[in-house]
Amino acid sequence: MVPRYVDAVLEGGLKPNTGIKLSLDGGAMLSIDAQQGYGQITGVQAMELAMARARQHGSCIMALSRSHHLGRIGHFAEMAVAQGLVSLHFVNVISRPVVAPFGGGDGRFGTNPCCIGIPMGEQPPFVLDFATSRVAQGKMRVAYNKGEQVPEGYLIDEHGRPSTDPGVVVRPLNQGLLGALMTFGDYKGYGMAVACELLGGALTGGGTWHQEADDRRAVLNSMLTILINPAALGSQQALAQEAQAFADWLRASPPAPGSPGVQLAGEPERTARTRRAREGIWLDQATWDEIQAAERKVSA
User: Fold this and answer.
1) Is residue 174 pLDDT above 80, yes or no?
2) Are 241 and 235 in contact (CB under 8 A)?
3) What whole-number distance in Å separates Cα of residue 134 and Cα of residue 153?
4) Do 45 and 173 reside in the same domain of the chain?
5) If exposure means fewest CB atoms within 10 Å of the residue's CB, which of 26, 186, 216, 228 is most exposed?
6) Each residue of 246-259: pLDDT tens digit?
7) 54-113 pLDDT, tens per residue?
8) 222: which strand partners?
9) Are residues 83 and 27 in the same domain?
10) For the ranges 42-46, 74-78, 142-146, which has the lowest average pLDDT?
11) Does residue 77 sit in the same domain as residue 212?
12) What are phi and psi of 256, to 5 degrees?
């Protein structure tokens, strides 16, 4: 995303050195304008304020609008569960629409992620973080830069036909058209994507996507966050005990053929983080070339 961030700054869609502005303070209800600042900053600022209110009031509903790309939503859930809070996040994307509605033949909305974080007592938390598309757009960019094909069922080309070429959603094709990602679970993922658009975009005031695609490089996110303090609900101990019992029950299931066994959401990511901290993060040459080209744009 570094090259795209640089382009967005140069175009004016991403505004460096910008923090959040509190638009509405209702105690346990907050409306926050991120003013198109870096999402990795504005998202953390908004979460810190919302978590303080959840500890004070027992819960908090926070509407964050007009943030530049928030990145991995699971990071914000991890912030919440580290403080013993349950968190739910619904996010929409204002950028070139790259996901097709179920039954449709072109992109009409973004990858619209949903995330749920639940503390589980002494064991690592449950952190479910997923795009409502079959696969995240960023993974298609990585596959394209590596020169790889993707499995069937992920993509359609600019004519609405099935494709295994990740380039259909990375580079403009015939007459500048792009293909689109498919939603996960057919109509179920489509329904969740619409819910994220309405909750993350319409309810927060950040807006929904309903226009022709353009070439602007900014990626704007709005996010509805719901935080619950189990201690205030009187269920903190029960949550920890039942979460442990249920996790043990799940893991006792015999592994399916060819499977390493049952895992909970968040475990694969923690394993990958440990491995990459030890071995480093591999970048393909095309991605590294793009990063260096972005550097030249701002150092000339």
Assistant:
1) no
2) no
3) 8
4) no
5) 26
6) 999 999 999 999 99
7) 999 999 999 999 999 999 999 999 999 999 999 999 999 999 999 999 999 999 999 999
8) 92
9) yes
10) 142-146
11) yes
12) -70, 155
Residue 284's φ and ψ, nearest 5 degrees, are: -75, 160
Judge if pTM exceeds 0.90.
yes
In DSSP notation, 113-125 reads -EEEEEEETTEEE
Q: Within 13 Å, how many C-alpha atoms sit on residue 177's CB side?
A: 13
Under 8 Å between Cβ of 31 and 24: yes
Residue among 114, 136, 130 at smallest CA distance from 226:
114
- Widest CA span in the chain: 59
In this structure, the answer to whether residues 120 and 144 fall within a common structural domain is no
Residue type, 92: N
Show the domain range for 60: 12-134+185-248
Q: Per the structure block, which two tokens stand in for 8?
A: 């967005």
- Report the alpha-carbon distance of residue 146 to residue 285 in Å, rounded: 8
183-216 CB burial, b ≥16 within 10 A, e <16 = bbeeeebbebbbebbbbbbebbebeebeeebeee
